[in-house]
Amino acid sequence: MPDTLVICPTTDEMDARLHDGLAPVFLRDLDDPATWLAANGQDIRYVLTDGHLGVPADIFSALPALSLISSYGVGYDAIDTGAATARGIPVTHTPGVLDAEVATTALLLCLTCWRDFEGALGHARSGLWANGSYKLTRSADKRRVGILGLGRIGKAFARKLAPFDAEIAYHGRTEQDVPHRYYASLTDMARDCDTLVSFAPGGAATHHLINADVMAALGPDGTLINVGRGSVVDEAALITALQTGTLGAAGLDVFEAEPHIPAALRALPNAVLSPHVGSATVETRRAMGDLAIDNLVAARDGAPLLTPVPESAGLL
Ligand code: A2R
User: Fold this and answer.
1) Whether residue 199 has its Cβ less than 6 Å from ligand 1
2) What is the pLDDT of residues 131-179, one digit of tens each?
């Protein structure tokens, strides 16, 4: 009898581990999930999901014996932690193991924007070089970089940026004991920086935190990078800012309505776009999958959960 409902996409390695000691059922294999859940939902004790799919309300209410939601990823804004806590169900996620990878993705987007490297690569591949050299671009050295969300990933990014002699500032709700300048105002920081990099989580508190005013403060030579959550950036305002030149360039790995990227954004030469691949390497996804399943195994064994989200602290 299945005891674990798998909602998110998984790797073969994860599937092998799930079959070793747990009894998984994969939502993707169910022809009629509602009927299956009505008949079998009472046996499901664990859910494996991710920060985008969460646990849809109809599934959540069909699982009366649910005792753990394990999320494969660090952001968990799609999971209703309030509803889970109200039912005494802890939620876990996979912080830490993806910091370096997401930081690398942010650095790739920065370098690609600063050096207009997508255009340079296209100039070579298209044969246009025969008609003339590619234009001069901006240096990646000695940039003034503002970090929105100097947490685990933001700090890993700051470390990776060090060889480029960047002057780093940060904005968050709280000042930290770090050797970077703190700004209580995001707009003020944007005004003093040439690049704003967001690692902020999603959710109501950060929705459209990066708005038209912040983009205007960054300015025509400014670059916006987002690898946190798409909801943090006002995408419509961003398209206008990039079209009008109010903002110089943007490098985005996350979007408001993934996997949909507005055609107007895809058409912009000053937008560098990647399909939410921040942590998407074999090595890092393996580490994330292991941690997500280690949390399931801990719950099954009655052992302490490895990485509960802060909202579940009162349940442990
Ligand atoms: O506000 P603080 O001082 O707690 O700083 C956190 C910041 N942050 C915010 N900043 C401004 N306004 C807010 N409403 C707000 N809420 C949170 O985001 C902290 O510096 C940072 C998050 O850091 P960590 O919790 O360590 O998360 P981690 O592992 O770096 O991942 C960040 C996000 C995930 O939530 C996913 O959305 C994405 O990266 O993959």
Assistant:
1) yes
2) 999 999 999 999 999 999 999 999 999 999 999 999 999 999 999 999 9
90 lines ligand 1 (CB under 6 A): no
Nearest CA to ligand 1 atom 18: 149
Q: At what angle do helices 99-114 and 282-301 cross, to 10 degrees?
A: 150
Which residue in the block uniquely carries the two structure tokens 């996620």? Answer: 93
Distance from C-alpha of 229 to C-alpha of 203, rounded to nearest angstrom: 9
pLDDT tens digits for 224-261? 999 999 999 999 999 999 999 999 999 999 999 999 99
Q: Are 98 and 72 in contact (CB under 8 A)?
A: no
Q: What is the DSSP string of 70-117?
A: EESSS--TTS-HHHHHHTT--EE---STTHHHHHHHHHHHHHHHHTTH
Q: DSSP for 242-255?
A: HHHTSS-EEEES--
DSSP one-letter code for 53: T
Residue 206 CA to ligand 1 centre (angstroms): 9
Testing ligand 1's pocket by substitution, the residue of 74, 97, 99 carrying the most ligand atoms inside 8 A of its CB is 74
Decide whether any atom of ligand 1 lies within 6 Å of the 229 Cβ.
yes
User: CA quadruple 86, 90, 96, 99: dihedral positive or negative?
Assistant: negative
153 CB within 6 A, ligand 1? yes
Cα separation values, 229 from 141, 197, 258, 289, Å: 27, 12, 10, 20
